[in-house]
Design a protein that fits this description.
This is Filamentous haemagglutinin FhaB/tRNA nuclease CdiA-like TPS domain-containing protein. Residues 33-147 form the Filamentous haemagglutinin FhaB/tRNA nuclease CdiA-like TPS domain. Helices cover 5% and strands 42% of the residues. By secondary structure, it is mainly beta. The strands form 6 sheets. The chain has a 30-stranded mixed β-sheet that branches. Strand 25 and strand 26 (251-254) form a beta hairpin.
C-alpha cells in the first residue's frame, strides 16, 4: 500500500472517530443541524424515538432542496426524509466544515432519488444502511449543476433559483476532493433469488447507487443494486462529472481533461448487481486496486431469467493502473438455469496487473450466451502466478462452464506488452455443450514464462475441455515479438467430442526456448488429446524470424480418434537448435482420402537445424498414413544429428519433399542414423515407405561437363620448384571447372578467373629472382584448417570459413553461425 492510500485511510478513520464523538455529546444538534441558507424554506428535524424525520426544504418543480450545517446519523438511529407528492429528487447539501458520518440508517419515505453532497467527506460505518425508494448519490463535489438554470452549491450556499430540471453535472472546484469511505456490512435483505443475504449499502432493485468523490475506499463493505447500476469514480482536481439519466436510472460521464481519483476495494469488499436482467457496474478512476478477495459481479440470475433477458456490462476505465491480487475477481456471469445474453466486461487502463489468483472473467453456467471480455491496455499487462492455495491461476477468461448449454463469449486483447508468468493464463474455454469463444491477443511484445508450482504452464489457450460437447474457438495472435520460455505454452486443443480450435500467429520475431523443471516444453500446439473424438485444429505461423531451441516444440497432434491438424510455417528464417522440434503426429485414419492431416509445410528463405533437432511426422497406429513434409527454402543447413523424417511405425510413411537452392550437412537414408543428419520416410516395411524428393534448382551437376583428355597433359615444372628432402611435397590436380581449363591448350571460359602465368624456362630478366627462391630458407606451408563457420556473399552464396569473417555486411538475414570441427 502506498503512503497515499495509508494517509487517506488514516484520515478517514480519524474523521469517523471525531464524528462519532460529536454525535455522542449532543445527539440532536451534532447529529443533524439545518443551516439558515434557505431562508423561510429552511429544513427542519423532528425526532421520535430513534428516528429523525427531516421536513421542510425548498421545492422547485420535482426537486426538493435541503441544507445542513452538520449531517450525521448515529449508530442505532435513522434519518428519514419525507417525500412530498410530485418530488422526484431530494438534494441535500452540507455547508459546514466536517464530514458526514453515516453510522445508522439513511432513508426516504417515498420513491424519490436522494443526493447527499458534502465536500468535506462522507463516511459509512459498518452498520450503515440505506432505506430509500429510488436511487442514491453520495458525492464530495462542491455543487450540482442544473444545466443553464444554475447550481446548488455546498461551498457557496444560496437559496436555489429556478432549478426545476433534472441535475446534469457534479462540479468539483477544490484542489483535491475529499474521500468517501464505505465500511458497511449491515444486513440489507435477500437478493432477488433469495439465495444469499446482501450485506452493505443497497438501493431497490433496478435503481442506481453512485459514489462520486475524491478517493473512494470500500473496506470490507458491500454495494448492491440488483438489476440496477453501481458506479464509482471521482476527481483528484477541479473539473466536472456529467450526471445522466431520467427517473431512477442514473449514470456518470467523465471527460479526459480532469485528473481522476483512486478507487480501492479491500478485505473482501464487493459490488453485486446480478439480477434477472440488467445490472451494470462502472468504475472511472486513476488507479483501481482490489485486494483480499474483493469482487465486482454482474450477470443474469437463473431463477427469474427469460430468453429475452440481457445483463448489463462491467466497464472499468482507469487512466493509470488496475491492480487485482489475492483472489480478487471481476466477473460477468450467466448463472445456472438462466437464458438470455450475458453482459460484457470492458477493461481500459494504462497498466493491468493480476497476481496471486486474481481473475477477470465473462462466463455462462446456463443456457444463455456468455458475454465478451475486452482488454485495452496502452502499456504492461502483467499476470503473475496462482493463489497461495494453488486453486486458481491469475487469469483473463471467457468460458462456458460445466453443465451449461450456452456459447462462451470472445476474449479480445490489445496492449503494448503482455507478460505471463508462474502459471498465469489467458484463455477462452468451453466445458459444456456450447461453443468456446475466440481469443484474439494484439500486442507489441508478448513474454510468457514458466509454470505454476504444480506444473500448470503460463500461456494463452482455447480449448474444448473434458466432458464438453461444444467446439473450441480459434486463437489469433498478432505481435511484434513473441517470446516463450521455461515451459510456457500457447495452445488450441480438444479434450472431448468438440473440434479443437485453429492457432494463427503473426509476428515479426518469435523465440521459443527451454522446458520447465518438470520437463514441460515451451511451444505452440494444436491437439486432440487421448480419449478425445474431436478433430484438432491447424497451426499457422507467419513470422520474420523463428527460433526454437533447448527442447522447445511446435506441434500438431491427435492422440484420439479425431484427425490432427496441419502445420504451416512461413518465415524469412527458421532456426532449430539443441533438441528443438517441429512435429505432426496422428493415430487417426482420414475419412477423406484426398485430404491431408499431420502435414508440415515450411516456406522460408533459410532453414537451419543443429544439435539433435528434428522435423518429423509420425503415424502412431495401424492403417494410418503418416503426414507429409514439404519444405521450400533457399538455404537448408542441417548438422549434428538433426533429422527430417516422415514415418509410420505400423503402416505407410509420409512423403518428404525439399525444394532448396543449397543443401548442407544432410542426406537421404533408408533408415535414420544416430550419428548423422538424415532425411527418411520409412514405413512398417520397405514396401510401405514414403518417398523422398529433393530438388535443388541452384545446383545442376550436369552443367558444363567436358571430357578430360585421355593422354597426360604435357606439363613442365621449373627445376627450382622441386622440393628438397625436408620440404613438404605439394600436388596440383585438375578436378573440373575453375580458374583453369581442363587442357592448358584451351582458351579460358567466360566465367573463369584470369591468372598470371610464370614462364617455366627462366629468362635472363627473371633468373636472379628464381635463384633467390632456390636458396631461400624452406618454410612449411600453413596447415589446412577445417571450416568452422560460414558467410553469405553478395550473390547469397555460402562461403565456408575457418573462423568468422570480418567483412562488410551484404544484407544478411542474420549473423554468422559458428560450427565445431569434427
Amino acid at each position: 500500500m502506498s503512503w497515499n492510500w495509508s494517509w487517506q485511510l488514516g484520515l478517514a478513520s480519524f474523521l469517523a472517530t471525531v464524528g462519532a464523538l460529536c454525535v455522542g455529546e449532543n445527539r440532536t444538534v451534532a447529529q443533524i443541524a439545518p443551516d439558515t441558507t434557505l431562508g423561510s424554506e429552511n429544513s427542519t428535524v423532528t425526532s421520535t424515538g430513534d428516528v429523525d424525520a427531516i421536513n421542510g426544504g425548498a421545492t422547485r418543480g420535482a426537486n426538493l432542496f435541503h441544507s445542513f450545517q452538520e449531517f450525521n446519523v448515529n449508530e442505532g438511529r435513522a434519518a428519514v426524509f419525507t417525500n412530498p407528492a410530485g418530488i422526484e429528487n431530494i438534494l441535500t447539501r452540507v455547508t459546514g466544515a466536517n464530514p458526514s458520518n453515516i453510522l445508522g440508517t439513511l432513508g426516504v419515505a417515498g420513491n424519490a432519488n436522494l443526493f447527499l453532497i458534502n465536500p468535506n467527506g462522507i463516511i459509512f460505518g459498518q452498520n450503515a444502511r440505506l432505506d430509500v425508494g429510488g436511487s442514491f448519490v453520495a458525492t464530495t463535489a462542491n455543487a450540482i449543476s442544473f444545466g443553464d438554470r444554475g447550481v446548488f452549491s455546498a461551498t457557496n450556499p444560496s437559496n436555489p433559483g429556478l432549478l426545476t430540471v433534472n441535475p446534469s453535472a457534479l462540479l468539483f472546484n477544490q484542489i483535491r476532493a475529499a474521500a468517501i469511505q464505505n465500511n458497511s456490512i449491515a444486513d440489507s435483505g435477500l437478493n432477488p433469488s433469495s439465495e444469499f443475504t446482501a450485506t452493505g449499502l443497497r438501493v431497490p432493485d433496478g435503481n442506481s447507487l453512485l459514489l462520486v468523490g475524491g478517493d473512494l475506499n470500500i473496506t470490507g463493505g458491500g454495494l448492491y443494486a440488483f438489476g440496477g447500476r453501481v458506479e464509482l469514480g471521482g476527481l483528484a482536481s477541479a473539473g466536472t462529472v456529467g450526471l445522466n439519466g431520467q427517473g431512477n436510472n442514473l449514470s456518470l460521464s467523465f471527460t479526459d481533461g480532469a485528473e481522476r481519483s483512486d478507487v480501492f476495494l479491500s478485505k473482501g469488499a464487493g459490488i453485486d448487481v446480478t439480477a434477472s436482467a440488467g445490472g451494470s457496474i462502472a468504475v472511472n478512476a486513476r488507479n483501481l486496486k482490489m485486494t483480499e478477495g474483493s469482487y465486482l459481479f454482474a450477470g443474469i440470475e437463473g431463477v427469474l431469467a427469460s430468453e429475452n433477458s440481457k445483463a448489463g456490462n462491467i466497464d472499468i476505465n482507469a487512466t493509470g493502473a488496475i491492480d487485482l491480487n489475492n483472489k480478487s475477481m471481476i466477473a460477468n456471469q450467466v448463472l445456472p438455469g438462466a437464458n438470455g445474453q450475458g453482459g460484457n466486461v470492458n477493461i481500459s487502463a494504462s497498466n493491468l496487473r493480476l497476481e496471486s489468483g486474481a481473475q477477470i472473467n465473462a462466463f455462462t453456467l446456463g443456457a444463455g450466451k456468455g458475454g465478451n471480455l475486452t482488454v485495452d491496455v496502452s502499456s504492461e499487462v502483467q499476470l503473475i502466478g496462482t493463489s497461495t492455495d494453488s486453486q486458481s491461476s491469475s487469469s483473463l477468461t471467457t468460458s462456458a462452464q460445466p453443465d451449461s448449454t450456452g456459447d462462451a463469449g470472445d476474449l479480445n486483447f490489445e496492449t503494448s506488452t503482455l507478460r505471463l508468468e508462474g502459471g498465469a493464463q489467458v484463455s477462452a474455454v468451453t466445458f459444456g455443450a456450447g461453443k468456446g469463444g475466440n481469443l484474439n491477443v494484439v500486442a507489441h511484445d508478448m513474454q510468457l514464462s514458466g509454470t505454476s508450482n504444480d506444473g500448470r504452464p503460463s500461456g494463452l489457450s482455447v480449448s474444448a475441455e473434458r466432458n464438453s460437447t461444444g467446439d473450441a474457438g480459434n486463437l489469433t495472435i498478432n505481435t511484434h515479438t513473441l517470446w516463450l520460455e521455461d515451459g510456457a505454452q500457447i495452445s488450441a486443443a480438444t479434450f472431448a467430442t468438440g473440434r479443437g480450435g485453429n492457432l494463427n500467429v503473426v509476428a515479426h520475431d518469435m523465440q521459443l526456448s527451454g522446458t520447465s523443471n518438470g520437463g514441460l516444453s515451451s511451444g505452440l500446439f494444436t491437439s486432440a488429446t487421448r480419449n478425445s473424438t474431436g478433430d484438432a485444429g491447424n497451426l499457422t505461423i507467419n513470422t520474420g524470424n523463428l527460433l526454437v531451441q533447448d527442447g522447445a516444440r511446435v506441434s500438431v497432434e491427435s492422440s484420439g480418434t479425431g484427425t490432427a491438424g496441419n502445420m504451416t510455417l512461413n518465415a524469412r528464417s527458421i532456426r532449430l537448435n539443441n533438441n528443438a522440434e517441429l512435429s505432426a503426429n496422428t493415430q487417426s485414419a482420414l475419412v477423406d482420402p484426398d485430404s491431408e492431416q499431420a502435414t508440415i509445410n515450411i516456406s522460408s528463405q533459410n532453414l537451419f537445424m543443429s544439435g539433435n533437432s528434428n522435423i518429423f511426422t509420425n503415424a502412431k497406429k495401424e492403417n494410418v498414413i503418416g503426414g507429409n513434409i514439404n519444405i521450400d527454402t533457399d538455404l537448408f543447413f542441417a548438422v549434428n544429428n538433426s533429422d527430417i523424417s516422415a514415418n509410420s511405425k505400423n503402416f505407410r510413411g509420409g512423403n518428404v519433399r525439399i525444394d532448396a537452392f543449397s543443401i548442407f550437412g544432410t542426406q537421404f537414408r533408408a533408415a535414420p542414423d544416430d550419428r548423422t543428419s538424415d532425411i527418411t520416410a520409412s514405413g512398417a516395411n520397405p514396401q510401405l515407405s514414403g518417398s523422398v524428393e529433393i530438388d535443388t534448382p541452384g545446383i545442376d551437376p550436369n552443367r558444363g561437363l567436358v571430357n578430360l583428355p585421355s593422354v597426360p597433359v604435357d606439363t613442365q615444372l621449373a627445376q627450382n620448384c622441386n622440393p628438397s628432402n625436408n620440404q613438404n611435397r605439394s600436388e596440383f590436380i585438375v578436378t573440373g571447372r575453375g580458374g583453369l581449363p581442363p587442357n592448358p591448350t584451351e582458351v579460358l571460359s567466360s566465367d573463369a578467373t584470369s591468372i598470371n602465368w610464370v614462364a617455366l624456362r627462366p629468362t635472363t630478366e627473371n633468373q636472379s629472382s628464381l635463384t633467390s627462391a632456390t636458396h631461400s630458407t624452406a618454410r612449411s606451408p600453413v596447415p589446412i584448417v577445417e571450416a568452422t563457420g560460414w558467410e553469405l556473399d553478395r550473390q547469397g552464396k555460402v562461403i565456408l570459413t575457418a573462423s568468422r569473417v570480418s567483412a562488410q555486411s551484404h544484407n544478411s538475414w542474420q549473423s554468422s553461425t559458428q560450427c565445431k570441427p569434427r
